[in-house]
Design a protein that fits this description.
Blueprint (H helix, E strand, L loop, with lengths): L21 E3 L5 E4 L8 E5 L1 H9 L5 E6 L1 H9 L7 E2 L2 H7 L11 E6 L14 E6 L4 H13 L4 E5 L8 H7 L8 E4 L2 H10 L3 E5 L5 E2 L9 E6 L7 H6 L2 E4 L11 H15 L5
Parallel strand pairs: 4-5, 7-8, 7-12, 8-9, 10-12, 10-13, 11-13
Antiparallel strand pairs: 1-2, 3-6, 4-6
Family: Belongs to the class IV-like SAM-binding methyltransferase superfamily. RNA methyltransferase TrmH family.
Keywords: Methyltransferase, Transferase
Protein name: 23S rRNA (Guanosine(2251)-2'-O)-methyltransferase RlmB
Length: 277
């Protein structure tokens, strides 16, 4: 499962051509308009929930905020403080030219990535999510949204084979990035061993798990480990888990995508541990 949190250690975004110029293919044919260049570590946020939650987050530094007249009016009506530059819709469309069909709802921001917590010093409590090379930003964003809804303490993912917490992922998270911190690690199995040493129960979700999740003995703190679409958990990840659990479905379709499975698992786990009361 692929989920790389926003960091400044990523290569800067490189536009297809200089800002303001279209990218041309053979024969000078315009392929698509180039996106503007962004500084290293910049997180792109667009859409109502994504941007409004970022503005509410005092820990998020906004470098640039663009809004249409309607977008700014909605912020004012909701009492959200902002210093938006009012622009026509086409200006935001241009900035999101590299993201087809981006639904920005009249709001666009460039912001600093949030500082991640140190996994070694985080309180050993509640629920963590560990993503084993989940790469689809839509799925990871949906997972972040569910994690925020169920009070997950953090999402742990790897430096490689994970999407950055920006753009499409941030939009799919619908503001969840402001509430669930990302922690990136070099080696997921090693991080799992460190969490076990700190008292975490490691439960991997796997269609071939030994028992249904409802039957697995749980305790707090717990780390739920989820694998990528199709491939599932890698062998070393499976071997490092304390338990492998499946989610038995009563209907004709017996499997769910990883984001839906995460939501169900979080509902089951937080209910059994009394974390939803």
């Amino acid at each position: 499962m692929n989920t790389t949190p926003p960091r400044g250690n990523k290569k800067p975004f490189r536009p297809f051509s200089k800002p303001g110029r279209p990218f041309k293919g053979r024969g000078g044919r315009v392929l698509r308009e180039a996106a503007p260049e962004f500084e290293t570590g910049t997180v792109l946020l667009y859409g109502w929930h994504t941007v409004s939650e970022a503005l509410r987050n005092k820990g998020r530094r906004i470098r640039l905020l663009l809004a249409t007249e309607n977008g700014a009016k909605r912020l004012d009506e909701e009492g959200i403080a902002h210093q938006a530059t009012i622009v026509p819709v086409r200006e935001i469309d241009k900035r999101l030219a590299a993201t087809p069909d981006a639904l920005h709802q009249g709001l666009f921001a460039e912001a600093d990535a949030l500082d991640p917590p140190d996994l070694r010093t985080m309180p050993a409590e509640g629920v963590l999510l560990l993503l084993d090379q989940v790469t689809d930003p839509h799925n990871v964003g949906a997972i972040v949204r569910s994690a925020a809804a169920f009070g997950v303490k953090a999402i742990v993912t790897t430096n490689r084979h994970s999407p950055e917490a920006t753009g499409v992922l941030a939009k799919s998270a619908s503001g969840g990035l402001e509430h669930v911190p990302f922690v990136t690690v070099t080696n997921l199995a090693r991080a799992m061993l460190e969490l076990r040493d700190r008292g975490f129960l490691l439960v991997g979700l796997d269609s071939e798990g030994d028992a249904d999740l409802d039957q697995v003995k749980l305790r707090e703190p717990v780390a739920l480990v989820l694998g990528a679409e199709g491939k599932g958990l890698r062998q070393l990840t499976r071997d490092t888990c304390d338990a492998l659990a499946r989610i038995d479905m009563p209907g004709a379709i017996k499997s769910l995508n990883v984001s839906n499975a995460t939501a169900l698992a979080l509902y089951a786990v937080t209910t059994r541990l009394g974390l939803r009361s």
